Amino acid sequence: MRRETGTRLPHLLVWLMVVPAVLLAGASGLSGGDLPRLVIVASLAAVAGLVVLAATRAVRSDGGPALGRVRTTLRERTLRTAFLPQRDPDAAGRPRPRAPGRAIRLSH
């Protein structure tokens, strides 16, 4: 099952930051002087930082559930295979199972 919020949230954050920055840069570019250049540089730096932040959050959030699923799968597989009967009890290196019976006397 894939989480939809993990894929949409970074895109939404990027759009929420890019659109106002572009509008501010366009509005400040209409007037003359050094202020529009500073606003454009500041807004582009802010957008670049937010894009990097959104990308790192997206990468971090996608790795977490995958590792959890792997851990859960391995745990379930271990529990499932722990009680499987031996396929070949007479294989080399395996001790022969004892027949049920009376206890063996170790001392006379």
UniProtKB/TrEMBL annotation:
Residues 84-108 are annotated as: Disordered. Residues 95-108 have a biased composition (Basic residues). Keywords: Membrane, Transmembrane, Transmembrane helix. The chain crosses the membrane at residues 12-32, 38-59. This is Sensor histidine kinase.
